[in-house]
Amino acid sequence: MAKEAEAAGEFRAKDYHDPPPAPLFDAEELGKWSFYRAIIAEFIATLLFLYITVLTVIGYKSQIDGGDECGGVGILGIAWAFGGMIFVLVYCTAGISGGHINPAVTFGLFLARKVSLVRAILYMVAQCLGAICGCGLVKAFQKSHYSRYGGANELSGGYSKGTGLGAEIIGTFVLVYTVFSATDPKRSARDSHVPVLAPLPIGFAVFMVHLATIPITGTGINPARSFGAAVIYNTEKAWDDQWIFWVGPFIGAAIAAFYYQYILRAGAVKALASFRSSSNM
Known about the structure:
The chain has helices at residues 2-7, 33-65, 74-93, 103-111, 117-141, 143-149, 161-182, 185-190, 199-217, 223-233, 236-240, 244-264, 267-279. The protein is mainly α. Helix 2 packs across helix 10, helix 4 (103-111) runs parallel beside helix 12 (244-264) and helix 7 (161-182) crosses helix 12 (244-264). It starts with a helix and ends with a helix.
């Protein structure tokens, strides 16, 4: 009968139960090698992410400065570099660390109780250190170009700080919302007959957001990316605007976590129903 139903195009969803929320502090994970392997994976992935993308940015800027306005990868190519690297690195590290590569993503998943507090903090530290080392490699290999072009996120002329902050909030919301949607185990259980490669929509989200916001802020949506480039570039302008690239992504991630968990997944309704049920007993 099962084969006949499958042949007729009818698919039965797998049984699914929401996993329990991650504890704020899990002492057991501190004694597991998989925990430290995940932290190392986040460090290396963020290092590689910054190395490739910042090299792409300063390479394009150097060609434009040299008068070759029609050469280079252009803004489209820069957006592809960021989105493509996220696709590759999330694909490589998803089974090890979850492939966050972004403190805002980690923060959103922590708010949704997908990761513990200790794991979230150490992920963010590893991501920021990886970003610093990645930009450090770029500067070591192309010191003159890096000192001139930097690749750090800065608010473009003609835009207010409010506009820059709004762009970062909305851009990060798009990214984190996509992360929640693409990695939702409930969706995988219900749509198991439809193969979904999670890194692909996540990479496309990064690509599309870069197309929209590169002219405004250079596109942060990743505090580690903005922080690492600012540390190595170390100019007054980069540090003056640095708060935008932390506050904006964290707000955007928080809104995305709330929207997906409590509205789309009806977390608030389920909690209220559970409360009423226990009260009537």
